[in-house]
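Subject: design request, 129 residues
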């Protein structure tokens, strides 16, 4: 279950830093849109992206969500990608995230391959501020 502070940050219009591990062990970080359900953080990406290949090989990730109004308020979640969702549900999810962050559906011409939702189960949750 997500900590209430973590969930509140993920539900708001805040950006997240999504960190995966490259094959040589070095971290790779991306600024991302973030969503959640009651138990998981949700990251939407495409199957051709390095971040997706990284989590297929090693599901350990870290997500840091930063409050857009107060950057001293943040949450860090260390966890594992425990499931992926593809197809119409992933496409619908990116539209919902785009609506949240941009106020409009996601541009279908921006999709290069297949959308996929990464479901991240927390192992450790920390919030500050």
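Subject: RE: design request

Done. Sequence follows.
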């Amino acid at each position: 279950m997500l900590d209430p502070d973590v969930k509140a940050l993920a539900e708001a219009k805040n950006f997240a830093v999504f960190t995966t591990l490259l094959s040589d062990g070095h971290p790779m970080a991306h600024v991302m849109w973030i969503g959640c359900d009651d138990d998981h953080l949700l990251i939407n990406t495409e199957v051709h992206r390095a971040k997706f290949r990284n989590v297929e090989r090693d599901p350990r990730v870290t997500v840091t969500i930063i409050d857009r109004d107060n950057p001293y308020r943040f949450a860090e979640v260390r966890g594992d990608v425990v499931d992926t969702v593809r197809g119409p549900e992933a496409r619908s999810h990116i539209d919902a995230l785009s609506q949240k962050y941009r106020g409009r559906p996601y541009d279908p011409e921006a999709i290069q391959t297949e959308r996929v939702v990464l479901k991240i189960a927390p192992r450790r949750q920390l919030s500050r501020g």
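Residues 4-124 form a domain with the Pnp Oxidase; Chain A fold (CATH 2.30.110.10).
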